[in-house]
Write a structure and sequence with these properties.
Radius of gyration: 59 Å
Distance between the termini: 130 Å
Number of helices: 21
Structural class: alpha+beta
């Protein structure tokens, strides 16, 4: 062991005390405790000792150097926290060297060259790392400073770009504003005049001062008198006043006057000094015209509400009455003044639960609901009911959103009572016809029987024979008319014409009906076309009546010399019967009511008809009773075609 290593082993505390004394004298560590001042020095002394003994112990100096660098790094971090710069850190390592060598000299120790080299090598590593760390720090600071400078430049560039963008936006807003915008500088000279200002004033910007404003731009009051300068809103803003929504009139060069609503405010610089004033004006000519129209419309609406013979009202989205006329107020039983502002439930509590869903549906969908019948019990008014016909319609704003519901109410109670009396009268008449028709069958049967007996007399004179034949034919015609009346009564009052379905073949039935009609009308050409399976379960007598009515109708309403065709088609699940005749088509306005009772047209056939106009009605009733239906089409090219569709089996009635 050399003298220096022995010193580090035996006089370690003396070295630390000398170091502490020198540091407190030479460096800014006032008030710091011993532990802070000594910091990593004890560890450094141990590492120097190990470095001096490394050759004898067989240790690698490079490993010890690495540990010394880590210790020095900790020391630098601690000293940086105390405010040391790199020079002070290097000086502190020189103090360590001086303390060690000074004590060695005082004790008379001799420093070997190898030990001196090892000591200098260890301390130089620590000082070199400090310098290198400082250089890296300065380079990092320079890099950070450069980055900060570039970031600052970028922020400045972005700020300028944003300022330009905002300026462009501001200029766009000003130029496209629907309000006139005028700016005056601190002396009152006009400097900015946007397009709307030019339109309102009828002239471009003129850079004139306050004394010329009134005359140049025709500023006046509502009576047309020039506005005193001290009353001009822009001038008042220059004096520091804020003006809001004042009426001003502009006399334009073309001689017209324009009312504008004006706002003016003073402008101030960043330091608060006056910088001018800004003036904005809104064209209110349209608003005044619309306001006048609105007042006129409301006056007309009030006149309509007051004089209308029907109940009218308007309700808002909360279902409160906004307007109601005296007619509806009387129907509700609540005066007009007590209805306004109140809800449905407050005015008509008994009816509100039934009609409120309709109001809400209209406010949601915007679709009207017209001619809805409302029945109101009158338990509090002596019993009975009242009938009203109510129509609901939305009132929409400019965007098409429903904001109100308009309601029209018509009291149809008297009309309902009148309709009921008419129904009862019609029912009585039809029952009377049924009774009379039924009672006429007996005397008619006696007449028919008597005529038949006379026709069988062989010795009957020719004149009497002709009379008997005439009696028989007319009796037969009367029997058909009475049968039609009875069928009408059954159809209207008895739930439909009764039928008795049974197996039936329409082929033979059609031939029989055609043959009978040929006997009665020998001059007409009747054709029968039959194809397919014509069997089914039907009431044979009723179908014979149906075919007879259709064929007689074709004879009566078609020109002589034209054919009439009965076509029977059984090619599908249903059987189709068609009766076709030529001639003038049935007028389009007649077709919808053709199957109603007592409808008779002008005959164009081989003779006049004495029917009651019930034939087609009975055809429809017979087809319906069999679960089928009848249709008609009529054109000049095709003629008139009646088509009956019948199922093969009559559906059972529930």
């Amino acid at each position: 062991m050399g003298a220096l290593a022995d010193l580090l082993a035996t006089r370690r505390e003396d070295i630390l005390q000398r170091f502490e004394r020198e540091v407190r004298t030479q460096f800014p560590v006032d008030g710091q405790p011993r532990s802070v001042i000594r910091d990593t020095l004890p560890q450094l002394l141990d590492e120097l000792y190990e470095l001096l003994n490394a050759p004898a112990n067989g240790e690698s100096p490079s490993m010890i150097h690495g540990q010394m660098r880590r210790t020095a790094r900790e020391h630098r971090a601690q000293r940086h926290a105390l405010g040391y710069d790199v020079t002070q850190i290097v000086r502190e390592y020189s103090v360590v060297r001086d303390c060690i060598l000074g004590l060695l000299e005082e004790t008379g120790g001799v420093l070997a060259i190898a030990e001196q080299r090892a000591l200098n090598r260890g301390l130089d590593l620590a000082m070199g790392d400090a310098v290198a760390d400082s250089e890296r720090g300065r380079e990092e600071e320079r890099r950070e400073a450069e980055e900060e400078r570039m970031a600052l430049l970028e922020r400045e560039r972005a700020a300028r770009a944003e300022a330009e963008r905002q300026r462009a936006v501001l200029e766009g807003v000003i130029s496209q504003s629907g309000d006139a915008i005028i700016v005056a500088d601190a002396r009152g000279v006009l400097r900015l005049f946007n397009p709307e200002a030019e339109r309102q004033h009828g002239m471009p910007l003129k850079e004139v001062g306050p004394k010329e404003w009134v005359e140049t731009y025709g500023l006046s009051n509502e009576e047309g008198h020039p506005l005193p300068l001290e009353r001009v809103p822009l001038y008042r803003a220059l004096q520091g006043e804020q003006v809001r929504d004042e009426l001003l009139w502009l006399h334009r060069p073309d001689g017209t006057r324009l009312p504008v609503s004006v706002t003016a405010r003073p402008l101030r610089g960043p330091d608060g000094t006056p910088a001018g004033a800004v003036f904005s004006a809104r064209d209110i000519a349209l608003r005044r015209a619309l306001s006048q129209e609105r007042e006129e419309a409301l006056a007309l609406l009030d006149a309509l509400l007051t004089t209308a013979p029907v109940g009218l009202s308007f309700l808002d989205r909360d279902l409160r009455y906004v307007r109601i006329n005296p007619t509806l107020a009387a129907l509700n039983g609540v005066p007009v003044e007590q209805s306004l502002g109140r809800t449905l439930w407050e005015v008509i509590p008994d009816i509100a639960p039934h009609v409120a869903p309709i109001y809400r549906r209209i406010l949601e969908t915007g679709e009207p609901e017209l001619n809805t019948e409302l029945i109101v019990p009158l338990s509090r008014r002596g019993g009975g009911t009242r009938h009203y016909l109510v129509s609901y319609a939305p009132v929409k704003d400019r965007e098409g959103r429903p904001i109100l519901v308009a309601v029209a109410v018509v009291d149809i109670t008297d009309l309902k009572r009148f309709e009921e009396r008419l129904r009862q009268t019609a029912e009585f008449r039809e029952r009377f016809l049924g009774i009379v028709s039924h009672d006429l069958r007996n005397p008619l049967s006696i007449i028919t029987l008597s005529a038949t007996m006379l026709l069988r007399q062989e010795a009957l004179p020719e004149r009497a024979l002709r009379l008997a034949q005439r009696i028989s034919l007319n009796a037969e015609q009367m029997a058909r008319m009475i049968g039609d009346l009875l069928d009408l009564t059954r159809g209207r009052l008895g739930g439909g014409i009764p039928i008795s379905p049974a197996p039936c073949d329409l082929g033979p039935l059609g031939r029989r009906v055609v043959s009978e009609l040929e006997v009665a009308h020998p001059a007409r050409e009747l054709r029968l076309e039959a194809r397919g399976d014509l069997r089914g379960e039907w009431d044979q007598d009723r179908l014979a009546q149906l075919l007879g009515n259709l064929l007689r109708n074709a004879v009566d309403y078609s020109p002589e010399g034209t054919p009439i065709t009965l076509a029977l088609d059984g090619g599908g699940e249903r059987v189709r019967l068609e009766v076709r005749n030529l001639g003038e088509p049935i007028p389009a306005e007649v077709l919808p009511g053709l199957f109603e009772p007592f409808r008779r047209g002008q005959t164009r056939g081989s003779g006049s008809t004495s029917g009651l106009g019930l034939g087609l009605y009975i055809v429809q009733q017979i087809a319906t009773a069999h679960g089928g239906g009848v249709e008609v089409r009529s054109t000049r090219e095709e003629g008139t075609v009646f088509t009956v569709q019948l199922p093969r089996v009559v559906p059972r009635r529930e």
